[in-house]
Structure prediction request, 163 residues.
Amino acid sequence: MNSLHLWPLLVPVAGLAVLLAAWWLYRLGQDVQTERAKEAFRLQRERLAEMFLLAANQSGKPRGLRWAEGTMTGELVLVRDRRTRKFTGLVAMDIRLDPLPDGDMEECEASKIPRTITAVFHFRAGEWLTEGRAIFNMSPDQAMSNFDQAEQSAENKGRSGNF
Prediction:
């Protein structure tokens, strides 16, 4: 067989090989980024809890209450925005809220009960940030399922995903 007759077959095969290699490199990059985000969170866990309490206090919500203390009790549930491809982390926290002096909630006994929330963090430019957003009465898994554009990431299949 003449070698000139093989070229029409080799070009599509080579193109397919290049596409498969590009896809594999993309997936490898995604996996590296995921591991980097998880490791950064693990290393900064205590600092992030403090940042969360500070930001939550500055938000003024819930009205008449001050965020007294909080401890992360759960593992990070990592989700990725389908549109921007950026990570958001959801973590269970046990918190205690104290009524502000002379505030509306000072006489309300229910305001003093410790509760579990889901704290929301964002991974931007290699750093975890928070705006103090808390999701009450939901676990991180339940909160993740409420995001409309959730897409499940491989390391959290069955318990979390991307939004």
